[in-house]
């Protein structure tokens, strides 16, 4: 019985058109990364489980794909877990490896492992797939690509400035206008927590604050009270509920709200540096927008926090990043501040597709198809094709001596511009009949004319 | 306690230099594939286990990396297998997905699944990693890349001819001379089996025959007798033990030896077509060599069999392939003959490295480093860097206002050709001090001169 073929949910096949369009995005990102001085590295698809587990929180641990040990893996299985049928407890004893969950932790592992070969500050980029056992939905896949650029080994805020420029550069080159680069700073959030006197309520606070547009000021306050944030605390940060206007006026407000928090003021000063310098240098098509509700990677980032949204299309974030002061510490290398940003290739793809921004991208296809009229003619064609290929003219021979209509049909379906017909008379005269499939024009020519016609088309 | 970082055995990190050199190989292969009319597809890293299992023989099944189901996987585990601690029997019930083992089976699955979107003959290429739980050794990894080009939908032998040209083209472009493209045909092997009257002895026979160079004619006969091949059978194929000389004379001999086997003669005729046409079209640096001991993928291939060796370096095969008449049948699509070849990226890398063939490959690195003398100077530098980058001049600012020596040292270590120094006087005069790190020359210039100097270097 033949199997009906299918692929695991959350994964995708990519057709020639899709691969070509994806590679176009990869190339734009790659060229910009290199233009900014980043160098490529790659890490293995799977890591030792101990490298990944515990780095992404409990939820992350669950979403990591584990690889079953090879051979008689049950011989080393945890007996108790086996008897109790405790999947969670059993896993570590039958699985030692796991698929990459993001590019940041493997990068931290790489930096520590290769620290003696690396010149710091180390600017690396990495464009590889990651895997998450998440529930698939629009823009969320179980296998997807991240494109990351990070610097480790410097605390300079010029890097924050450059990463904003890099976002702007890449989205501009992709033709994606009006992207919004949201920026916040972990120290602002810490400052707010100080002011409301409850670090443990910080997430509840930002989640509620984030709903300001939807449920209004009163709704937000109601939700905060419901989460156990005191009226007094809310009063202290009330101006946050009216924060609006441009980045400068928001920074001014924040300075007032956070006046009693050293950390908070430090955050304001860092943000001001980045925002002012970015403004002076100028962005092409993106805008940088301070957003104090931005709290992604709360346990992770220590300084700047970034998130990018495409204003024209409804889609989750298409990029994110931030500064982490001690990512490599867990692998034994202390005091290595890093900052990085990530591009979500798959979502960017969906956005560009929705906006019709792949029009320029041309599918790699032969410029010319040689019709096959039999063995002698085919050999003559292959001699010609060899010379065309040496001149970088993509060309191919229809493999079979099939009916002319079928061969012409193939050229049409593949949208090939030129067809060459070589029958007995062309063979005897060392000529070619060249047909332009768009115009229908047909002419007899020698090799030089043929080469010129197809090469410059 | 900090973990000492490491990666799973058989996997590798790739440094910027390695990634760049690997990408150089990928690009040469990719350009040639497209030049020959192949189009890219990609398939997921993991497939449903049912797609892969049973396609590579028992050994293959063992070497496939299985992915543990997510969540409470033991709740659906095979009770009997669990109680008997039978790993083999348990696997299917706790693992539904597995990592790609090669690119051919996923390709067959792709063709069947997308048959209505595909124009046949379908020429696709695919360059993706595959994973095997094999014992790592030189040139054998647990994660490695295959670069495959296949055509499905035609039985034309011109394709065999073109694949030989494609091998030759790519190895020539890589600077790898004297590669030996070995060719055989499954029908020759079937013919030999017919002649020796024992299909089940065919592998023993070819294994013994393959040792001719090492153990001589008598040694081979002794081994064959030991494997139960009769004296009578050996007498019939005795000329095989003296096969030598060029392809043409070997073909002549084979025609005699296989005169009573229709299949065998068919194989000779197919081989003759390919060998003759390749000879007439000419190869650049490779040679095509008939090798009747070549039996790779015996259960798989039905016509031509290819294997490529680098003559200058001791390394396993760096490429292989062949024709398979019914690969898609197992997924429900009959009568789809296919032929394809594969390039082993990782071994080709090792060969090129050993021969010093990466000299031309240039690491992506900044052309110019701007020294950081403080906030005002750094801002001025970033304004300049922005303009340089718009002109595609890779450039970067040293992020910190560190000691000059440290910054110059960084430029040296990264082998950056130019350094720009902007102090107060340069700032006031809107000038730059440009230092050529190779020659040591230093000069004051404006932006236009700076751009010209670094862009054309």
Automatic annotation (TrEMBL), chains A, B:
The keyword Nucleotide-binding applies. It is an enzyme of class 6 (ligase). It holds the Pfam family HGTP_anticodon. Residues 1-364 form the Aminoacyl-transfer RNA synthetases class-II family profile domain. InterPro entries: aa-tRNA-synth_II (IPR006195), aa-tRNA-synth_II/BPL/LPL (IPR045864), Anticodon-bd (IPR004154), Anticodon-bd_dom_sf (IPR036621), His-tRNA-ligase (IPR015807), HisRS-like_core (IPR041715), HisRS/HisZ (IPR004516). GO terms for biological process: histidyl-tRNA aminoacylation. Its main location: cytoplasm. It catalyses: tRNA(His) + L-histidine + ATP = L-histidyl-tRNA(His) + AMP + diphosphate + H(+). PROSITE patterns: AA_TRNA_LIGASE_II. GO terms for cellular component: cytoplasm. It is found in: Cytoplasm. GO terms for molecular function: ATP binding; histidine-tRNA ligase activity. Homodimer. L-histidine binds at residues 102-104, 132, 146, 150, 296, 300-301. This is Histidine--tRNA ligase. Keywords: Aminoacyl-tRNA synthetase, ATP-binding, Cytoplasm, Ligase, Nucleotide-binding, Protein biosynthesis. Belongs to the class-II aminoacyl-tRNA synthetase family. The gene is hisS. Its EC number is 6.1.1.21.
């Amino acid at each position: 019985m033949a199997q009906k073929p299918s692929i695991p949910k959350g994964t995708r096949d990519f057709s020639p058109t899709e691969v070509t369009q994806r590679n176009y995005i990869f190339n734009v990102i790659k060229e910009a990364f290199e233009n900014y001085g980043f160098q490529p590295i790659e890490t293995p698809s799977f890591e030792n489980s101990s490298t990944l587990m515990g780095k992404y929180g409990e939820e992350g641990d669950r979403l990591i794909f584990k690889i079953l040990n090879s051979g008689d893996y049950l011989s080393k299985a945890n007996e108790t877990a086996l008897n109790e049928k405790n999947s969670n407890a059993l896993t570590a004893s039958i699985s030692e490896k796991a698929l990459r969950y993001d590019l940041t932790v493997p990068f931290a592992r790489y930096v520590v492992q290769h620290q003696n070969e690396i010149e710091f500050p180390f600017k690396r980029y990495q464009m590889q797939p990651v895997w998450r056992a998440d529930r698939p939905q629009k823009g969320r896949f179980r296998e997807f690509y991240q494109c990351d650029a990070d610097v480790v080994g410097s605390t300079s805020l010029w890097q924050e400035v450059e990463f904003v420029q890099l976002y702007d550069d890449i989205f501009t080159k992709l033709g994606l206008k009006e992207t919004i680069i949201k920026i916040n700073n972990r120290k602002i959030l810490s400052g707010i927590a100080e002011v409301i006197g409850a670090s443990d309520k910080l997430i509840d606070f930002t989640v509620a604050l984030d709903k300001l547009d939807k449920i209004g000021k009163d709704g937000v306050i109601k939700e905060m009270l419901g989460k156990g944030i005191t009226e007094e605390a809310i009063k202290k940060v009330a101006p946050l509920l009216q924060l609006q206007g441009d980045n400068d006026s928001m920074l001014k407000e924040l300075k007032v709200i956070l006046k009693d928090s050293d950390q908070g003021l430090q955050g304001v000063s860092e943000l001001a540096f980045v925002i002012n310098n970015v403004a002076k240098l100028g962005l092409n098509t993106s805008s940088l927008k301070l957003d104090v509700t931005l709290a992604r990677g709360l346990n992770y980032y220590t300084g700047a926090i970034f998130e990018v949204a495409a204003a024209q299309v409804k889609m989750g974030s298409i990029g994110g990043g931030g500064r982490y002061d001690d990512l490599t510490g867990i692998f034994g290398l202390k005091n290595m501040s890093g900052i990085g940003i990530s591009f979500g290739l798959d979502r960017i793809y969906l956005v560009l597709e929705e906006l019709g921004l792949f029009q320029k991208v041309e599918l790699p296809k032969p410029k010319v198809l040689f019709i096959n009229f039999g063995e002698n003619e085919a050999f003559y064609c292959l001699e010609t094709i060899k010379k065309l290929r040496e001149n970088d003219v993509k060309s191919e021979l229809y493999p079979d001596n099939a009916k002319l209509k079928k061969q012409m049909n193939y050229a049409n379906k593949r949208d090939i511009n030129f067809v060459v017909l070589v029958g007995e008379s062309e063979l005897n005269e060392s000529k070619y009949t060249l047909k332009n499939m768009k115009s229908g024009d047909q002419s007899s020519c020698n090799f030089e004319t043929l080469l010129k016609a197809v090469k410059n088309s």
